[in-house]
User: Fold these one by one.
Assistant:
Number 1:
Amino acid sequence: MSITVNTSVEASKAEREKFVLAFNDTMVKIWKERITLLDVIDTGTLLNSVVGVRCNADGQFLQIELSQAFRTYGLWQDRGVGKEVYRGNPGDIERDKVRVRKRWFSIKYYASFYNLREFLADNVGKQFLGMTSDVFETDKFIKQAWP
């Protein structure tokens, strides 16, 4: 009895590696485009702070750690909150809210995260579809079951 994994294992691994390595660079490009498009620029500090920090993966690109970084206040820009409301405010700022939500981060990040997750599930699934076993080949099965 033997189990065979076809040659798509290396092709699947190479495809995963290419996709994962491109993820951080792609996210940085998308975020910088969104920051510029939505005019989330005052001094340019947020725009220049967006970087892909790290990509660690095991040899098969099945366990992955990706890291990106940017100035924390970028999250407040994405949510449309910030310094116009003082700490401890009960919710009534006694004037119209001036800040508007500029969603440069969240929408693209979550969409890209789910795309990466779906890609990995599909890729790993296809890799294991190539596995076969000869245990049920009629002649071998009968000879092993009834010698």
Number 2:
Amino acid sequence: MATNISAQAHIDPRAEIGDDVEIGPFCVVGPQVRIGRGCKLLANVTIFGHVTIGEENKFYPGAVIGGEPQDLSYRGSDTQVVIGDGNVFREAVTVNRATEKESGVTSIGNDCFLMACSHVAHDCALGNRVVIANGTLLAGHVRIDHHATLSGNVGVHQFTTIGSYSFIGGLSRVLHDVPPYMLMEGNPCRPRCVNLVALRRNNFPREYIEALSETHRLLFRAKVGLDQACEILRSQGRLVPPVNQLLNFVQEQQEGRFGRARERRKAA
């Protein structure tokens, strides 16, 4: 199908626009932007700076992608935003370009859903099938693994890592790393239980779910310590792959600073 661009949109002639792209009125697309096949910019979408967008993404009115990082040390270098395929960016979502402090790329994977007024700051990296609800704010250098869900109006501290298949309740303040498979909530955010809904929806075996529940009990309720929890789980035959992933995540978190594994980079 042919590309359909509104006469009321402004597209820099140097931008690369793929086949079957729809660009609605009052959209602005800058010269360093590449938009893949089948993307839709409904109206009043702004994409500028060095931005690469995959296929079949949908941008709702007011979205701003590729703005300069909100970092006082930024001096105008040519950093990037890289977006995968099949993502949805609802009204007034903002995604900022990276600084030079890490890879120089703010990245979003595939099939993510960013709801209205959510913000992805500089140097963040989102995996696949991440859901971020309305008004949730990611500070710089946040990492979110696959299948994580953040409810509305959550605030996430810089350099935080959010593990896969985790869920963060609304209005939570995330100061520390969020272990995978956990349901978190509070101010500050704490593990409450295993995220059973996500595990069942994604067809985790019952033995894995039971092993993760026991790991949660040992680490976050009984608080027996990582080494002792590992020995107990080994004696019970419960060191299945998700449990090992959770234990490794917690170990790395404890080796970091302020409850965040990636703070080790700053300390170095």
Number 3:
Amino acid sequence: MQRPFNFTIYPYSKISRLPKFLQRPALILKNLAARSPKYKNSFDGIATMHNLGFLSDPRFIVASKRAIQAGGFDYGIPLRIHQAIWCADKAIKLPPDSVFVELGTGKGYVMSAILSSLEFMKADLSKKEVYLFDTFESSATDFKSEQDLSLGRNIYYAESFNAVKENFFEFPNVNLVKGRLPATLMTFELEKIGLLHIDLNAPEIETQCLRILWNRILPGGVVLIDDYAYSGFEYTYKLFNELAKELGVQILTTASGQGIIVK
């Protein structure tokens, strides 16, 4: 069965920059192009004829439903969620006192999926400290993390600190850290990081934070970079590649635009 047309205009997308009278026709053309009969699945800038069996996996379905509960609607990013769960599966095997860190939580879409997927697998989360860093505000930012009022409220950003706190109420080991990065990193002695998820839409701050945290990531720890190779994020791609060369590591490019580093 074909997926229904997606008429969501995503912030920072090429379509969002078109005049309003052209946006809907452009979305229709984009949806029609994605429905080429040779592709079985199309979403999030991806079209593939290959097997995506994880879409029907009960664990993935539970995680996706929990993500939608957090975000308020389906973001249409199943491969990103699948890969985030894969990264968490690697990280959960590290010592029990290792921690999960997320820079740019928004409403909690991705981390809600991660934690519910681990819970589904009966993973022991009782001692797993999770630190989520964000301003927990809905104001949009530009690609250098400078306020841009013309972008208005970003539909993916947190509406309030209390709303995100309520979302993670079932996970008592989740710690919300409100404020601007990288300054808020100095408020916690973060050590033994097993999983680091970076999604700030601000490449200069993202790479600065990774540089600060790199030596605190355990061997075997996983870094997931949300917009590493995503279309329109060429500056992000450039800065992370420069940092990877400096650190002596390689970043795996995925079809979703995410980058993955296993230390």
